[in-house]
């Protein structure tokens, strides 16, 4: 008897999940269409817009030797519109880096803060301050929620 009740509850839950998924699909909403935007998105958007857009050419000096966009992994071709981040001088496709910086506060290549000169005020850490030799996972009591 209990097994039958659990089976009916499972079938009802699966049916409800299918109905909700169908409704979202009909309305054009999906989890991929809503990127997570961090607090301060308006200020971050203004900062992103201030970074000039350039057209890539082979003579343009990018930090590092790669001419590959680290976000979409496509080759940056001559004539592509790119943004060079002001602090580290890494270059990325405009559409890629704009979306990246809206959801993450660091450069995708070197993890430096691209706009703020004082890393402590933005919560970023300079690469030389990171101890890469002894990385240990955080225990549950050390996690910060907020």
Automatic annotation (TrEMBL):
Residues 69-111 form the RING-type domain. GO terms for molecular function: transferase activity; zinc ion binding. Keywords: Membrane, Metal-binding, Transferase, Transmembrane, Transmembrane helix, Zinc, Zinc-finger. GO terms for cellular component: membrane. GO terms for biological process: protein ubiquitination. It comes from the Eukaryota. It holds the Pfam family zf-RING_2. Signal peptide: none annotated. It is a single-pass membrane protein. It is found in: Membrane. Transmembrane segments: none annotated. InterPro entries: ATL10/ATL72-79-like, Znf_RING, Znf_RING/FYVE/PHD. Residues 125-146 are annotated as: Disordered. Belongs to the RING-type zinc finger family. ATL subfamily. This is RING-type domain-containing protein. It comes from Dendrobium nobile (Orchid).
């Amino acid at each position: 008897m209990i097994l039958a009740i659990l089976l009916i509850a499972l079938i009802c839950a699966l049916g409800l999940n299918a109905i909700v998924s169908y409704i979202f699909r009909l309305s054009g909403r999906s989890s991929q269409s809503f990127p997570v935007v961090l607090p301060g998105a308006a200020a971050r958007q203004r900062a992103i817009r201030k970074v000039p857009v350039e057209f890539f050419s082979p003579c343009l000096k990018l930090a590092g030797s790669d001419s590959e966009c680290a976000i979409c992994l496509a080759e940056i071709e001559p004539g592509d519109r790119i943004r060079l981040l002001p602090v580290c001088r890494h270059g990325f496709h405009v559409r890629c880096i704009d979306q990246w910086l809206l959801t993450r506060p660091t450069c995708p290549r070197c993890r430096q803060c691209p706009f703020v000169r004082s890393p402590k005020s933005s919560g970023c850490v300079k690469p030389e301050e990171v101890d890469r030799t002894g990385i240990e996972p955080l225990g549950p009591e050390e996690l910060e929620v907020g």
